[in-house]
Amino acid sequence: MKKIQMVDLNGQYQEIKDQVNSSISRILESAAFINGPEVHAFQKELETYLGVKHVIPCANGTDALQIAMMGLGLRPGDEVITADFTFAATVEVIALLQLTPVLVDVTADTFNIDISAIEKAITPRTKAIVPVHLFGQCADMDAILSLAEKHNLYVIEDNAQAIGANHTFKDGSKQKAGSIGHVGATSFFPSKNLGAYGDGGAIFTNDDALAHTIRGMVNHGMYERYHHDVVGVNSRLDSIQAAILRAKLPKLDEYCHKRRQAARKYSSAFSGQEHIVVPKTVNGCDGICDTCDCHVFHQYTLRITNGKRDDLVQHLNDMGIPCGVYYPIPLHRQKAYVDERYREVDFPVTNQLVKEVISLPMHTELDDEQIDFITNTVIHFINS
Ligand SMILES: *Cc1c(COP(=O)(O)O)cnc(C)c1O
C-alpha cells in the first residue's frame, strides 16, 4: 500500500508537470513576476468558472478577508458576526481592523453557522455577517441572505474551504460558493482545494464599484499611478502562482469529484456505526451529489461520540494514518479573542464539536486500498 498522506500535492503535480514547468520557465524568461499576463488570464478564467463579474487576486486568503472588509468601508466598532468554529483567520482580520467580532455557535450536523444564533446576536451596531463554508459546504445562504436583507447587513463569504461547491437555493437555482454574498474571499494555500505552490488568495464580487475600490486597495490605495486615494495594503498574487493555478483550474471539478468519491466510500464504510457520525450534506444527497455538487470535502470530518476521539488520534498516528483535529479550541476561548460578552451556555455545539471531531486523509489521490485500511482501522478501534 502507498504511504497514506493527509494531502497529496505531488500526485496532482505529476499530471500537470509539463504545463507548470514550461509556464514557470516562460515567466522566468519574461521577468513579469508581479501583475504579469498570467495573473490577468487567471483572473478572467476564474471569473468565468465562478460566474462572477469580478475576481481580484491577492496574496493570501487572510488578506482577501481583510481587504473585503476594508472595501465595504466597515469602521471601528462595527459588529461583525461570524462562526465560533472556524480557522482563526476569519476573526483575526475582524479584530485587526478594530471591528467588533461577535462569535456565534454552529450547527452540529453541518458544522456551519447557526442561523438562530445569528438572529439573536444582531444589534443596531451589526454591519456584516461572515459565513464560513466550513469543510467544503455552504452555510445556509438562503437564510443568511434574507436576514441580511431584513437588517441591512453585508454578507462576506469566507470561501477558503469551498471553492467549486455549488449552493442550491430553495427555488432550485444554483450559484457557486463565494459568489453569493456581497463579497467572497478565498485562499489558494497549497492544501486548499485549488492550491498554489505558495501563498495566494482572491476576492470575488458582482458589485462594480466595490471591485474598483478593492482593486486599488490591494495596491497601496492607488487608482492612478502614485496617487494614493485611500489607505491600502500590498497584497498581490505573483505570476508564478497564477500560472500554477491556471493549470489546475480546468481540473478543479475533477478534483472535487475525486474528493466526493473518497467521501462516499468513507461514509458507506462507516454507515451503521453507533459511535461515528459521518458528515451530512444539506441537500440530503449524502455526498452522492454528482449533480448538485453541494460539498467539495475540503475536509472529511467525523464526530466520534463515545469519548474516544483523542485515543483514536493517537491510534491512527501509531498506525501510520495521518489525521487532524479541526478545530481543537473554540475561538471564543482563544486567548486573543476572549471577551466578557461570551457565555459558555451560548456555545453548546462548538464546545461539543471540539471534543468529537476528527478529519481523515482527504485528497484526490486516495485509492480503495488506503480507504479500506483507514475505515477498518477506525471501526475496529472505536468498537474495541
Ligand atoms: C485557510 C483559511 C483561511 C486563510 O487563508 P490563508 O491563505 O492561509 O491566509 C481563512 N479562512 C479559512 C476558513 C481557512 O480555512
From TrEMBL:
Transmembrane segments: none annotated. CDD domains: AHBA_syn. The active site is at K192. Keywords: Aminotransferase, Pyridoxal phosphate, Transferase. GO terms for biological process: polysaccharide biosynthetic process. It comes from the Bacteria. Pfam families: DegT_DnrJ_EryC1. GO terms for molecular function: pyridoxal phosphate binding; transaminase activity. The modification N6-(pyridoxal phosphate)lysine is found at K192. Belongs to the DegT/DnrJ/EryC1 family. This is DegT/DnrJ/EryC1/StrS family aminotransferase. It comes from Costertonia aggregata.
